[in-house]
From TrEMBL:
Keywords: Transferase. GO terms for biological process: fatty acid biosynthetic process. This is 3-oxoacyl-(Acyl-carrier-protein) synthase. PANTHER family: 3-OXOACYL-[ACYL-CARRIER-PROTEIN] SYNTHASE, MITOCHONDRIAL (PTHR11712:SF336), POLYKETIDE SYNTHASE-RELATED (PTHR11712). Residues 48-220 form the Beta-ketoacyl synthase-like N-terminal domain. GO terms for molecular function: 3-oxoacyl-[acyl-carrier-protein] synthase activity. It comes from Flavobacterium pectinovorum. GO terms for cellular component: cytosol. The keyword Magnesium does not apply. Pfam families: ketoacyl-synt (PF00109). InterPro entries: Beta-ketoacyl_synthase, Ketoacyl_synth_N, Thiolase-like.
Amino acid sequence: MQLKKTYINGIGCISTQKTFDTVFLEEAVHNHDENVLKIVPPIYKDFISPAAARRMAKGVKNGIVASAIAMKDANIENVDAIITGTGLGCIEDSEKFLKNILDNNEEFLTPTSFIQSTHNTVGAQIALLQQCKGYNFTYVNGAVSFESALIDAKMQIEEDEAQSVLVGGVDENGDYTTALFKLSGRIKPDNQQPYNLLDSDTSGAVYGEGASFFVLENERKKTTYAEILDVTILNTLEENEVEAETLSFLKANNLEISDIDALVLGFDGNVDFENYYRNLGENSFANTPQLYYKHLSGEYDTASAFALWMAAKVLKTQEIPEIIKVNSVEKLAYKTILLYNQLNGKNHSFTLISK
């Protein structure tokens, strides 16, 4: 049996940049002063009734809008499956519920925040709005939550279990969680501007939030951005193993280093783990165009979904905006792109897409 191919036929992205109603990143702003980036909100009432929107968590609203944009982009009304990846789920509602427990001495609690705080709320709300009764699954797996969803979606399409799948990565920031992340050193301390990622000498990351959704189908269409060739995840890797692992991943797909037209790296400004990216960028891929994105999106568990959105746009527009370049290497055409991401030395992922 011939496995079906997986094509990205529609994309939608709500992020800490204006990534809707734009061609690509022409309105993107490189922020040097904030260590936690906030979402640039779309006009929610164009997508969700104000009455419904009031009761929805940030992540749910952004997920609904991003998925609606992706569906419209792909010119389809419904999909066979909805698969979501999220690291922290609807963390704001979780915070609200826990705060209520403390404030009310564990009495007279309304369950609303608790019900809406579960990680699968986003996928469920999208399904309700679309009346999609198909396969609906949410992966919560740290920094590879989105890749886990992507692998599932790809398998569904390859095995002809589904013709079209809506897959996305969603995370939101909550005030209390953000404060804890600062305490634990996961987010860079306040007042340490400028927050530059490429020449950072401090630990911790610049944080963000966002929702990126993709319509994957088994047919190539006019709207096709790219084909997803392969996705793989590894829990632990040593810094000196990344290069060999990357090469064997390429080899498994019958590719050489010279076949890669751009390498997308997850630099997040955390000096303790930069070598994972440096080792790749400065050695094997020294002559390959290299891109980064977390200075625009911030670091969060599903930031790699923003990276895939960006890479798909590069293949479609055949241009690399200055704002995302790590080096000045250029190519005449961009056909195959490799994405590599990890968070704090764990949860490594490789994604390979081609035009």
